[in-house]
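Structure first, sequence second, as always.
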């Protein structure tokens, strides 16, 4: 686990520590993170379905501090517990960012500057396009919404979901 940059360190040393931590977050996300966009039934929306993007990093309870460090780094999102009732000895925790604005202003710029090194980079690029379209309110237009859904279908190893 990476060491959080010291607040006492100044200048070039502090930048070096922040850069190391940023690369640690990228690597951690490559292994334990996900950029996903769900289409959820919601009768209160114009089209009956809601486009629901989220950035998630998951860890077992023993590594909860790693998620807390990531949350502190980005300054947004929440950590949720998924209680386990199977043969696992610890609960699963998820750091999630769901706010379109925070995804657009914090998460996307970070991963543009510090790209992923696995297949998740492709998901990120699609995720970025969808978030940008949502910022422009394209999801509220029927034809543009269809284009967004076509993009979503290409994510996460092209699982057929809709």
């Amino acid at each position: 686990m990476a060491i959080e940059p010291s607040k006492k360190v100044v200048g070039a040393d502090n930048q070096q520590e922040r850069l190391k931590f940023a690369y640690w977050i990228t690597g951690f996300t490559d292994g334990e993170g996900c950029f996903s966009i769900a289409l959820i039934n919601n009768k209160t929306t114009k089209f009956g379905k809601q486009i629901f993007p989220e950035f998630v990093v998951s860890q077992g309870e023993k590594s909860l501090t790693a998620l807390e460090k990531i949350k502190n780094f980005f300054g947004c999102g929440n950590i949720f517990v998924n209680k386990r009732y199977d043969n696992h000895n610890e609960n699963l925790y998820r750091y999630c960012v769901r706010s379109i604005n925070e995804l657009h202003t914090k998460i996307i710029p970070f991963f543009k500057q510090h790209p992923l090194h696995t297949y998740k980079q492709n998901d990120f690029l699609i995720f970025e396009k969808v978030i940008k379209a949502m910022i422009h309110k394209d999801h509220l237009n029927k034809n543009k919404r269809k284009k967004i859904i076509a993009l979503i279908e290409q994510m996460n190893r092209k699982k057929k979901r809709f």
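Margin note: Strands lie at 33-41, 49-60, 78-82, 92-97.
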